[in-house]
Amino acid sequence: MARNRKRIFWLAVLLSLLLPSAWLGISRADEASPSPIVQQMVEAVSEPALADHILHLQDDPHQPGLDAEGSRHSFSPGLALAAEYIGQHFATAGLTVELDPFVRQGTVMTNVVGTLAGVGPGDDLIYILCAHYDSIANRTPGWDPATDPAPGADDNGSGTAAVLEAARVLGQHHFAHTLRFIAFAGEEQGLWGSAHYAQEARRAGDDIRGVINLDMIGWDSDGDRVIELHVGTDPASEALANRFTTALSTYELDLVPQTFTTDAIGLSDHASFWAQGYPAFLGIEDTEFGGPTADFNPYYHTVGDTFDKLDMAFVTAFTRAAVATLAELAEPLTTDVAIALGGPAMVRVGTILTYTLTYSNVGALIASGVVITDDLPLGLSYQADDSGLPHVEWAPQVHRWEVGELSPGDGDSFVVTTTVGVDLAPGTLLTNTAEIGTASLEGRVDNNSSTLMTVVFWGLYLPLIN
Fold it and tell me: What's the CA gap between 346 and 453, in Å, rounded?
């Protein structure tokens, strides 16, 4: 017996040196990677949907078909029609829609606000994606705002379309913090709508943690994919912009950011939030307001600012970056089912080998259709388990248990009993993989499987007696 103990001891020492830690039942985390749930949101952004919004925003609805004869000038009837269009799409996205009216020069104008309320104790923290939806074409000689078109496809149909599409994509999910999607009026006359909104937000004590303002995101005539982020010098605004640039690399979006701090411009709605002490930045195409690449849109504020001039792949990438940034800031709430497989590092030929399967929902939402599978290695024979769950061997050596619905924080464990075949050679590695899955959308999948390797060693074989 002493000799056998020595052999087993030195075999265990050798295995601990040679075998990877995962084989001995020690978990190893995967390398950092993009959030699977956020990746799905990014990929859900639709270029055709963005294009459709811009085409409708530049359209004159009083004429048949889609054209570029419309106007969303702040003092034109088209502004109210655009507000109605935006509100309808916010509602379709499942947002709570509010109209935020204000009066300038005797005219009522309306900001359109869509809110996706956060869930849980962090719902009072607010992140905003915004764009102005009014347009102007005063650089066109002889232009009359009362009668002439101001299609504003790039300025700022592109930014408005991004807000609408982001609302559609993010509105299908739950987040810990509140998201607001806002289309501002009266920007071209002096940031009227955003100034009104930001002042009221500060007066109400809204805890706005970040504002991403998109204004002109469709022009890239030289194809260099350069964008500008006008951040200012506030550390919180810089941190917000850093999250945006990180999202570009994390989700492999084809944009090249240039960040402006002391030379940042304040000529768009982000400046209204700066004035109230809220973190904000402007995302805009390469305007040559401070960069060396000279790619300013020559159709800016003219009747020539139409859809056919835009680079829709550029608009799509910009929108995806905003979606990724907002999603990560707001913290998606998802299901997250996990499994861990436990068992011995070594087992004797011809004996009983038991595995413990521990499963749980470590996410924030209920997981439905939860299923566990265990792919037993050849050489083992399933005997029983104490799960109490519906069980079937649905493929050779593959056992399946139906868990069903699993609430957040819930879970359990059960033991699977097997026998080790007497014909297995000493040193055989028994690789067992248990997996868990759900019909619900998960925020991560790296904890959906667990693998254990057990080494068969020499030992006295005694027949099992039932």
Answer: 9
Q: What pLDDT is stored for residue 23 in this prediction? A: 30
**6 Cβ neighbours under 8 A, 6+ residues apart:** none
Per-residue pLDDT tens over the stretch 180-226: 999 999 999 999 999 999 999 999 999 999 999 999 999 999 999 99
- Are both 300 and 362 inside the same structural domain? no
Structure token digits, residue 143: 């232009």
- Where in the sequence is the domain holding 18, given as residue range(s)? 2-30+334-457
**Residue 86 included in any domain:** yes
| H-state helical runs in 256-395 | 270-275, 312-330
CB-based contact 220:309 (threshold 8 Å): no
Q: What is the pTM of this model?
A: 0.81
How buried is residue 19: exposed, middle or buried, by Cβ count under 10 Å (0-12/13-18/19+)?
Answer: middle
The answer to whether residue 450 is domain-embedded is yes
The DSSP code sequence of 336-372 is -EEEEEE--SEEETTSEEEEEEEEEE-SSS-EEEEEE
Question: CB–CB of 131/183 below 8 Å?
Answer: yes
CA dist., res. 423 & res. 5, Å (int):
22
Count the helices and strands in the chain (H runs, E runs): 9, 20
**AA letter at 138:** N
